[in-house]
Give the backbone structure.
Amino acid sequence: NAGVTQTPKFQVLKTGQSMTLQCAQDMNHEYMSWYRQDPGMGLRLIHYSVGAGITDQGEVPNGYNVSRSTTEDFPLRLLSAAPSQTSVYFCASRQGLRGYTFGSGTRLTVV
Amino acid sequence: DAKTTQPPSMDCAEGRAANLPCNHSTISGNEYVYWYRQIHSQGPQYIIHGLKNNETNEMASLIITEDRKSSTLILPHATLRDTAVYYCIVRVEGATNKLIFGTGTLLAVQP
């Protein structure tokens, strides 16, 4: 039982490049979400999904796309990276009233 | 979801109890109180949650006042590894399952 796995752990992008941050969970959780955390700040919700085929926007969705084709995977896509997207990205999942399980994060730098 | 207020920072001596307060004066009857913590550079970790009654698990105790307008997270015997940012979150359990983080309390456990 690996929990929530995020890849890659570190990434450097040039402005305008695209990439996908991967998130996978093996706990059969229905709910998954993506957060970003900027230095000295709390986490902000980007997108979330309450089940396969269903996604919705969080607080800061602009510049990001998501899809949920399976229960296990919830990738986050940056279509055209900008320096403002330099951040640490966390994926999380949960089931029912239990607490969220977070991944270890992806540290993204856009230059 | 109701807004929460936490002190920005607190100190605690190693081996002593750490009592972290949270005010949530606008909490609704169906909103739960959740506590998470984030150790430096790691993903947040679920600690405990409750609705009305006090709760205890292997990590901590949660004391909720009778009027539910405030709560206290208690770490009974703080260790250096408990140094982290602690987040108090109140939320309704619903279809969206969104989790909104504030800025939390930085707990520094001193040797």
